[in-house]
Amino acid sequence: MADEADLGNEQAARFLQEAILNRAVEDKLTPRGNCYFCECTFDKTHPSYKAEDATFSQKLFCDVDCSSDYEKEKRIRSRR
Ligand SMILES: [Zn+2]
Predict the structure, then answer these.
(1) Which of 4, 27, 32, 67 is the most exposed place for a label (fewest CB within 10 A)?
(2) H/E run at residue 56
């Protein structure tokens, strides 16, 4: 018999994953070479981007801060 706590964790993980995927589909954000939040252009020659070269073309935000701030602003806007 499945442990109820385990079942809850599994559901929570699935819910979170679906939320992330749905958000990506809903936003329809396509990489455009600059940040969707602060709109600064990604500097490909900057040393900090070297490690991310493989994913550079997929970048939507400078970093996690811009990403979460964008989400926050979006939520505030959608509430109006
Ligand atoms: Zn940014």
Answers:
(1) 4
(2) none
Beta strands in the chain (DSSP E): none
9 Cα–ligand 1 center, Å: 33
Do 37 and 70 fall into the same domain? yes
C-alpha span between 66 and 37 (Å, rounded): 6
Separation of CA 80 and ligand 1 centre (Å): 24
**Tens-level pLDDT at each residue, the chain (80 residues):** 556 667 778 887 777 666 655 555 556 788 888 899 999 888 767 666 555 555 566 788 888 889 899 999 999 998 86
* Cα 17 to averaged position of ligand 1 atoms, centre (Å): 24
58 CA → ligand 1 middle, Å: 14
